[in-house]
Amino acid sequence: MDKEIIQNSRILIVDDQQANIVLLERILQQAGYSQLARVLDSRLVIDGFKTFQPDLILLDLMMPQVDGFSVMTQLRSSISEEVYLPILVITADVTPAAKQRALSVGAKDFLTKPVDMTETVLRVYNLLETRWLYRKERELLERTLRGSIGILSEILSLVNPSAFSRAHRIRRYVQHMAERLRLADRWQYDLAAMLSQVGCVAVPPDVLNKSYRAGATLSATEQDILSSQPHVGYDLLSKIPRLEQIATMVAGQRSAWSDMIDSPELVRVGAHLLKVALDFDELIMRGATSDVALRQMYCSKAYQPDFVGALQHLQTEESRNTTRWIPASQLEAGMIIKEGVHSRTGLLLLSKGQEVTESAIARLKSFASLFGIVEPLCVTVPAVKQPLSSGETRSGFVTSPSEPSQPRSLTWE
To answer: Which domains, ranges and CATH numbers included, belong to the chain?
Structure first.
Protein backbone atom coordinates (compact mmCIF):
# COMPACT_ATOMS: atom_id res chain seq x y z
CA MET A 1 0.00 0.00 0.00
CA ASP A 2 1.13 3.52 -0.81
CA LYS A 3 2.10 5.33 2.43
CA GLU A 4 1.46 8.71 0.82
CA ILE A 5 -2.18 7.81 0.23
CA ILE A 6 -2.60 6.52 3.78
CA GLN A 7 -0.86 9.49 5.43
CA ASN A 8 -2.56 12.22 3.39
CA SER A 9 -6.11 10.92 3.04
CA ARG A 10 -8.91 12.45 5.12
CA ILE A 11 -11.74 10.12 6.15
CA LEU A 12 -15.10 11.26 7.51
CA ILE A 13 -17.04 8.68 9.58
CA VAL A 14 -20.82 9.19 9.88
CA ASP A 15 -22.73 7.02 12.36
CA ASP A 16 -25.23 7.73 15.13
CA GLN A 17 -23.64 5.11 17.39
CA GLN A 18 -20.45 6.27 19.09
CA ALA A 19 -19.28 2.70 19.69
CA ASN A 20 -19.35 2.02 15.94
CA ILE A 21 -17.31 5.16 15.24
CA VAL A 22 -14.72 4.26 17.90
CA LEU A 23 -14.33 0.78 16.39
CA LEU A 24 -13.83 2.15 12.88
CA GLU A 25 -11.36 4.77 14.12
CA ARG A 26 -9.27 2.10 15.83
CA ILE A 27 -9.24 -0.08 12.71
CA LEU A 28 -8.17 2.84 10.52
CA GLN A 29 -5.58 4.14 12.99
CA GLN A 30 -3.97 0.72 13.21
CA ALA A 31 -3.72 0.76 9.40
CA GLY A 32 -1.90 4.12 9.56
CA TYR A 33 -4.71 6.60 8.88
CA SER A 34 -4.50 9.65 11.12
CA GLN A 35 -6.71 12.30 9.50
CA LEU A 36 -10.10 11.19 10.77
CA ALA A 37 -13.26 13.13 11.60
CA ARG A 38 -16.59 11.98 13.01
CA VAL A 39 -20.23 13.08 12.75
CA LEU A 40 -22.78 11.57 15.14
CA ASP A 41 -25.76 13.72 14.08
CA SER A 42 -26.53 13.06 10.42
CA ARG A 43 -28.14 16.50 10.12
CA LEU A 44 -24.64 17.99 10.43
CA VAL A 45 -23.00 15.95 7.67
CA ILE A 46 -23.07 18.70 5.03
CA ASP A 47 -21.39 21.21 7.37
CA GLY A 48 -18.84 18.60 8.41
CA PHE A 49 -18.16 17.73 4.79
CA LYS A 50 -17.57 21.35 3.78
CA THR A 51 -15.31 21.98 6.77
CA PHE A 52 -13.25 18.78 6.64
CA GLN A 53 -13.21 18.19 2.85
CA PRO A 54 -12.75 14.41 3.13
CA ASP A 55 -11.28 12.06 0.55
CA LEU A 56 -13.65 9.27 1.61
CA ILE A 57 -16.86 9.02 3.64
CA LEU A 58 -17.77 6.00 5.75
CA LEU A 59 -21.55 6.23 6.06
CA ASP A 60 -24.05 4.24 8.09
CA LEU A 61 -27.35 3.78 6.25
CA MET A 62 -29.75 3.34 9.18
CA MET A 63 -29.74 6.56 11.24
CA PRO A 64 -32.52 8.61 12.89
CA GLN A 65 -33.41 12.13 11.72
CA VAL A 66 -31.69 11.81 8.31
CA ASP A 67 -30.80 8.35 7.01
CA GLY A 68 -27.79 7.49 4.86
CA PHE A 69 -29.80 7.55 1.63
CA SER A 70 -30.91 11.14 2.29
CA VAL A 71 -27.38 12.15 3.31
CA MET A 72 -26.00 10.92 -0.03
CA THR A 73 -28.75 12.78 -1.89
CA GLN A 74 -27.82 15.99 -0.05
CA LEU A 75 -24.12 15.47 -0.71
CA ARG A 76 -24.65 15.24 -4.45
CA SER A 77 -25.45 18.96 -4.60
CA SER A 78 -22.17 19.77 -2.80
CA ILE A 79 -19.91 17.61 -4.94
CA SER A 80 -18.90 18.57 -8.46
CA GLU A 81 -19.70 16.02 -11.13
CA GLU A 82 -16.02 16.10 -12.11
CA VAL A 83 -14.90 15.02 -8.62
CA TYR A 84 -14.63 11.37 -7.61
CA LEU A 85 -15.51 11.25 -3.91
CA PRO A 86 -16.05 7.66 -2.74
CA ILE A 87 -18.76 6.84 -0.20
CA LEU A 88 -18.36 3.50 1.58
CA VAL A 89 -21.72 2.47 2.99
CA ILE A 90 -21.97 0.46 6.23
CA THR A 91 -25.16 -1.55 6.57
CA ALA A 92 -26.73 -4.66 8.01
CA ASP A 93 -29.26 -4.68 5.16
CA VAL A 94 -27.72 -6.85 2.44
CA THR A 95 -30.81 -7.11 0.28
CA PRO A 96 -30.37 -6.32 -3.46
CA ALA A 97 -32.97 -3.56 -3.20
CA ALA A 98 -31.00 -1.75 -0.48
CA LYS A 99 -27.75 -2.02 -2.43
CA GLN A 100 -29.35 -0.82 -5.66
CA ARG A 101 -30.90 2.16 -3.89
CA ALA A 102 -27.60 3.08 -2.26
CA LEU A 103 -25.69 2.79 -5.54
CA SER A 104 -28.26 4.98 -7.29
CA VAL A 105 -27.66 7.88 -4.88
CA GLY A 106 -23.87 7.75 -4.80
CA ALA A 107 -22.47 4.77 -2.88
CA LYS A 108 -19.29 3.28 -4.34
CA ASP A 109 -18.91 0.17 -2.13
CA PHE A 110 -20.37 -1.62 0.91
CA LEU A 111 -19.31 -2.96 4.28
CA THR A 112 -21.62 -5.42 6.02
CA LYS A 113 -22.14 -5.25 9.77
CA PRO A 114 -20.47 -6.51 11.86
CA VAL A 115 -17.44 -5.14 10.01
CA ASP A 116 -14.36 -7.23 9.43
CA MET A 117 -11.04 -5.47 10.13
CA THR A 118 -9.14 -6.77 7.10
CA GLU A 119 -12.04 -6.20 4.71
CA THR A 120 -12.53 -2.67 6.03
CA VAL A 121 -8.87 -1.72 5.52
CA LEU A 122 -8.77 -3.18 2.01
CA ARG A 123 -12.02 -1.60 0.82
CA VAL A 124 -11.06 1.79 2.26
CA TYR A 125 -7.64 1.71 0.63
CA ASN A 126 -8.97 0.55 -2.75
CA LEU A 127 -11.45 3.44 -2.89
CA LEU A 128 -8.82 5.97 -1.79
CA GLU A 129 -6.35 4.66 -4.37
CA THR A 130 -8.96 5.16 -7.09
CA ARG A 131 -9.63 8.72 -5.84
CA TRP A 132 -5.93 9.57 -5.92
CA LEU A 133 -5.61 8.23 -9.46
CA TYR A 134 -8.57 10.39 -10.50
CA ARG A 135 -6.99 13.42 -8.83
CA LYS A 136 -3.64 12.92 -10.53
CA GLU A 137 -5.29 12.52 -13.92
CA ARG A 138 -7.42 15.60 -13.32
CA GLU A 139 -4.42 17.65 -12.21
CA LEU A 140 -2.57 16.60 -15.36
CA LEU A 141 -5.52 17.63 -17.52
CA GLU A 142 -5.82 20.94 -15.65
CA ARG A 143 -2.12 21.72 -16.12
CA THR A 144 -2.33 20.81 -19.81
CA LEU A 145 -5.43 22.95 -20.31
CA ARG A 146 -3.98 25.86 -18.35
CA GLY A 147 -0.70 25.67 -20.23
CA SER A 148 -2.44 25.59 -23.62
CA ILE A 149 -4.66 28.53 -22.72
CA GLY A 150 -1.67 30.37 -21.28
CA ILE A 151 0.14 30.08 -24.61
CA LEU A 152 -2.97 31.23 -26.48
CA SER A 153 -3.41 34.18 -24.14
CA GLU A 154 0.23 35.16 -24.47
CA ILE A 155 0.10 35.03 -28.27
CA LEU A 156 -3.01 37.21 -28.26
CA SER A 157 -1.32 39.67 -25.89
CA LEU A 158 1.47 40.08 -28.41
CA VAL A 159 -1.01 40.70 -31.23
CA ASN A 160 -3.18 43.12 -29.24
CA PRO A 161 -1.27 44.40 -26.18
CA SER A 162 -4.00 46.79 -25.05
CA ALA A 163 -6.63 44.07 -24.77
CA PHE A 164 -4.71 41.10 -23.55
CA SER A 165 -2.27 42.82 -21.23
CA ARG A 166 -5.40 43.59 -19.27
CA ALA A 167 -6.00 39.86 -18.93
CA HIS A 168 -2.61 39.60 -17.16
CA ARG A 169 -3.71 42.22 -14.64
CA ILE A 170 -7.15 40.66 -14.16
CA ARG A 171 -5.56 37.28 -13.60
CA ARG A 172 -3.26 38.72 -10.93
CA TYR A 173 -6.22 40.28 -9.10
CA VAL A 174 -8.37 37.14 -9.39
CA GLN A 175 -5.59 34.85 -8.17
CA HIS A 176 -5.09 37.05 -5.14
CA MET A 177 -8.79 37.24 -4.27
CA ALA A 178 -9.27 33.48 -4.70
CA GLU A 179 -6.32 32.81 -2.42
CA ARG A 180 -7.42 35.30 0.25
CA LEU A 181 -10.98 33.94 0.17
CA ARG A 182 -9.65 30.35 0.25
CA LEU A 183 -11.83 29.34 -2.66
CA ALA A 184 -11.87 25.84 -4.08
CA ASP A 185 -11.58 25.23 -7.86
CA ARG A 186 -9.11 28.10 -8.22
CA TRP A 187 -7.83 26.70 -11.49
CA GLN A 188 -11.21 27.41 -13.10
CA TYR A 189 -11.19 31.01 -11.86
CA ASP A 190 -7.63 31.33 -13.12
CA LEU A 191 -8.64 30.17 -16.61
CA ALA A 192 -11.65 32.49 -16.59
CA ALA A 193 -9.37 35.43 -15.82
CA MET A 194 -6.89 34.46 -18.53
CA LEU A 195 -9.72 34.23 -21.07
CA SER A 196 -11.83 37.13 -19.79
CA GLN A 197 -10.69 39.45 -22.59
CA VAL A 198 -10.79 37.00 -25.49
CA GLY A 199 -13.92 38.77 -26.78
CA CYS A 200 -11.76 41.84 -27.38
CA VAL A 201 -10.77 40.34 -30.72
CA ALA A 202 -13.96 42.08 -31.89
CA VAL A 203 -13.10 45.43 -30.28
CA PRO A 204 -10.95 47.95 -32.21
CA PRO A 205 -7.82 48.86 -30.17
CA ASP A 206 -8.66 52.58 -30.37
CA VAL A 207 -12.02 51.98 -28.68
CA LEU A 208 -10.41 49.89 -25.97
CA ASN A 209 -7.70 52.49 -25.27
CA LYS A 210 -10.30 55.26 -25.20
CA SER A 211 -12.30 53.40 -22.57
CA TYR A 212 -9.30 53.54 -20.23
CA ARG A 213 -8.62 57.27 -20.57
CA ALA A 214 -9.79 59.50 -17.75
CA GLY A 215 -12.47 61.92 -18.97
CA ALA A 216 -12.97 60.11 -22.28
CA THR A 217 -16.58 59.48 -23.30
CA LEU A 218 -17.50 56.63 -25.60
CA SER A 219 -20.09 57.14 -28.31
CA ALA A 220 -23.20 54.95 -28.25
CA THR A 221 -21.76 52.78 -31.02
CA GLU A 222 -18.42 52.41 -29.20
CA GLN A 223 -20.20 51.52 -25.98
CA ASP A 224 -22.24 48.84 -27.77
CA ILE A 225 -19.08 47.34 -29.25
CA LEU A 226 -17.36 47.27 -25.85
CA SER A 227 -20.44 45.86 -24.13
CA SER A 228 -20.57 42.98 -26.60
CA GLN A 229 -17.10 41.75 -25.58
CA PRO A 230 -18.26 39.31 -22.86
CA HIS A 231 -20.85 37.76 -25.18
CA VAL A 232 -18.33 37.37 -28.00
CA GLY A 233 -16.03 35.66 -25.51
CA TYR A 234 -18.84 33.35 -24.43
CA ASP A 235 -19.65 32.40 -28.02
CA LEU A 236 -16.00 31.50 -28.63
CA LEU A 237 -15.42 29.58 -25.40
CA SER A 238 -18.72 27.72 -25.07
CA LYS A 239 -17.84 25.62 -28.12
CA ILE A 240 -14.79 24.15 -26.33
CA PRO A 241 -15.41 20.98 -24.25
CA ARG A 242 -14.86 21.42 -20.47
CA LEU A 243 -14.95 25.21 -20.76
CA GLU A 244 -18.73 25.64 -20.60
CA GLN A 245 -18.74 26.94 -17.01
CA ILE A 246 -15.77 29.18 -17.66
CA ALA A 247 -17.54 30.57 -20.71
CA THR A 248 -20.55 31.40 -18.52
CA MET A 249 -18.26 33.17 -16.02
CA VAL A 250 -16.84 35.26 -18.86
CA ALA A 251 -20.35 36.10 -20.08
CA GLY A 252 -21.32 37.31 -16.59
CA GLN A 253 -18.23 39.43 -15.93
CA ARG A 254 -20.25 42.66 -15.92
CA SER A 255 -23.13 41.37 -13.79
CA ALA A 256 -23.69 42.51 -10.20
CA TRP A 257 -23.50 39.93 -7.41
CA SER A 258 -27.28 40.07 -6.89
CA ASP A 259 -27.96 39.58 -10.61
CA MET A 260 -26.45 36.08 -10.59
CA ILE A 261 -28.28 34.68 -7.59
CA ASP A 262 -29.83 31.89 -9.70
CA SER A 263 -26.51 30.77 -11.20
CA PRO A 264 -24.53 27.78 -9.89
CA GLU A 265 -22.23 28.85 -7.05
CA LEU A 266 -19.04 28.16 -9.04
CA VAL A 267 -20.22 30.32 -11.94
CA ARG A 268 -21.56 33.07 -9.70
CA VAL A 269 -18.32 33.32 -7.74
CA GLY A 270 -16.18 33.18 -10.88
CA ALA A 271 -18.16 35.86 -12.67
CA HIS A 272 -18.02 38.13 -9.61
CA LEU A 273 -14.29 37.70 -9.24
CA LEU A 274 -14.00 38.94 -12.81
CA LYS A 275 -16.33 41.88 -12.23
CA VAL A 276 -14.51 43.06 -9.11
CA ALA A 277 -11.13 42.70 -10.83
CA LEU A 278 -12.27 44.41 -14.04
CA ASP A 279 -13.94 47.35 -12.31
CA PHE A 280 -10.98 47.84 -9.97
CA ASP A 281 -8.62 47.74 -12.95
CA GLU A 282 -10.73 50.23 -14.89
CA LEU A 283 -10.69 52.71 -12.00
CA ILE A 284 -6.91 52.35 -11.63
CA MET A 285 -6.33 52.76 -15.38
CA ARG A 286 -8.44 55.93 -15.33
CA GLY A 287 -6.14 57.42 -12.71
CA ALA A 288 -7.70 56.54 -9.36
CA THR A 289 -5.46 55.42 -6.50
CA SER A 290 -6.06 52.00 -4.98
CA ASP A 291 -7.54 53.60 -1.84
CA VAL A 292 -10.00 55.70 -3.82
CA ALA A 293 -10.97 52.79 -6.07
CA LEU A 294 -11.62 50.45 -3.13
CA ARG A 295 -13.60 53.06 -1.18
CA GLN A 296 -15.77 53.70 -4.21
CA MET A 297 -16.39 49.98 -4.69
CA TYR A 298 -17.18 49.44 -1.00
CA CYS A 299 -19.94 52.03 -1.30
CA SER A 300 -21.58 50.24 -4.23
CA LYS A 301 -24.18 47.52 -3.78
CA ALA A 302 -22.99 45.86 -6.99
CA TYR A 303 -20.17 44.03 -5.18
CA GLN A 304 -19.95 41.36 -2.51
CA PRO A 305 -17.91 43.15 0.22
CA ASP A 306 -15.64 40.18 0.99
CA PHE A 307 -14.37 40.17 -2.59
CA VAL A 308 -13.52 43.87 -2.47
CA GLY A 309 -11.90 43.38 0.94
CA ALA A 310 -9.59 40.75 -0.51
CA LEU A 311 -8.14 43.37 -2.85
CA GLN A 312 -7.26 45.54 0.15
CA HIS A 313 -4.65 42.93 1.08
CA LEU A 314 -3.25 43.05 -2.45
CA GLN A 315 -2.72 46.78 -2.06
CA THR A 316 -0.79 46.16 1.17
CA GLU A 317 1.41 43.52 -0.44
CA GLU A 318 2.09 45.58 -3.55
CA SER A 319 3.10 48.56 -1.43
CA ARG A 320 6.31 46.62 -0.72
CA ASN A 321 7.14 46.49 -4.41
CA THR A 322 9.54 49.04 -5.91
CA THR A 323 9.45 51.06 -9.11
CA ARG A 324 12.61 51.12 -11.20
CA TRP A 325 13.83 52.58 -14.47
CA ILE A 326 15.95 49.92 -16.15
CA PRO A 327 17.48 49.24 -19.57
CA ALA A 328 15.76 46.54 -21.61
CA SER A 329 18.73 44.25 -20.97
CA GLN A 330 17.71 43.98 -17.30
CA LEU A 331 14.08 43.12 -17.96
CA GLU A 332 13.02 39.86 -16.27
CA ALA A 333 9.97 37.63 -16.29
CA GLY A 334 7.70 38.48 -13.37
CA MET A 335 8.28 42.24 -13.46
CA ILE A 336 5.25 44.46 -14.12
CA ILE A 337 5.31 47.15 -16.81
CA LYS A 338 4.68 50.49 -15.08
CA GLU A 339 4.48 52.60 -18.26
CA GLY A 340 3.71 51.37 -21.77
CA VAL A 341 6.70 50.16 -23.79
CA HIS A 342 6.92 51.47 -27.38
CA SER A 343 9.15 50.89 -30.34
CA ARG A 344 10.92 53.95 -31.74
CA THR A 345 8.38 53.89 -34.54
CA GLY A 346 5.62 54.44 -31.94
CA LEU A 347 4.16 50.92 -31.87
CA LEU A 348 2.87 49.80 -28.47
CA LEU A 349 4.69 46.61 -27.52
CA LEU A 350 3.75 46.12 -23.87
CA SER A 351 0.92 47.86 -22.06
CA LYS A 352 0.89 49.41 -18.61
CA GLY A 353 0.24 46.76 -15.97
CA GLN A 354 1.31 43.81 -18.11
CA GLU A 355 3.34 41.09 -16.44
CA VAL A 356 6.58 40.40 -18.26
CA THR A 357 6.92 36.89 -19.70
CA GLU A 358 9.72 35.16 -21.57
CA SER A 359 7.85 35.55 -24.86
CA ALA A 360 7.38 39.27 -24.21
CA ILE A 361 11.12 39.60 -23.63
CA ALA A 362 11.79 37.73 -26.88
CA ARG A 363 9.47 40.10 -28.73
CA LEU A 364 11.16 43.17 -27.29
CA LYS A 365 14.53 41.72 -28.20
CA SER A 366 13.43 41.37 -31.84
CA PHE A 367 12.07 44.92 -32.00
CA ALA A 368 15.16 46.28 -30.28
CA SER A 369 17.42 44.77 -32.92
CA LEU A 370 15.23 45.80 -35.89
CA PHE A 371 13.64 49.13 -34.97
CA GLY A 372 14.86 50.02 -31.49
CA ILE A 373 12.71 50.57 -28.42
CA VAL A 374 12.31 53.55 -26.12
CA GLU A 375 14.52 53.07 -23.07
CA PRO A 376 14.87 52.97 -20.11
CA LEU A 377 11.76 51.00 -19.15
CA CYS A 378 9.68 51.82 -16.10
CA VAL A 379 8.81 48.61 -14.24
CA THR A 380 7.51 47.43 -10.90
CA VAL A 381 9.82 44.93 -9.25
CA PRO A 382 8.06 42.54 -6.83
CA ALA A 383 9.44 42.61 -3.31
CA VAL A 384 10.98 39.16 -3.73
CA LYS A 385 12.74 40.20 -6.92
CA GLN A 386 15.70 42.56 -7.10
CA PRO A 387 16.99 44.25 -10.27
CA LEU A 388 20.33 43.29 -11.76
CA SER A 389 23.34 45.33 -10.94
CA SER A 390 24.67 47.72 -13.58
CA GLY A 391 26.16 45.96 -16.57
CA GLU A 392 24.49 42.60 -16.02
CA THR A 393 22.10 41.24 -18.63
CA ARG A 394 19.75 38.28 -18.64
CA SER A 395 17.43 39.09 -21.51
CA GLY A 396 19.93 38.89 -24.34
CA PHE A 397 19.51 42.52 -25.41
CA VAL A 398 22.41 44.53 -26.76
CA THR A 399 22.23 48.11 -25.53
CA SER A 400 24.11 50.72 -27.45
CA PRO A 401 26.53 52.80 -25.31
CA SER A 402 25.21 55.89 -27.05
CA GLU A 403 21.74 55.35 -25.56
CA PRO A 404 20.73 58.22 -23.24
CA SER A 405 20.44 57.38 -19.55
CA GLN A 406 17.27 59.41 -19.04
CA PRO A 407 13.82 58.31 -20.17
CA ARG A 408 12.43 59.55 -23.44
CA SER A 409 8.69 59.82 -24.10
CA LEU A 410 8.08 58.73 -20.50
CA THR A 411 7.41 60.62 -17.28
CA TRP A 412 9.32 60.16 -14.04
CA GLU A 413 7.20 59.31 -11.00
So the answer is: 3-135 (3.40.50.2300), 160-319 (1.10.3210.10), 321-413 (no CATH)
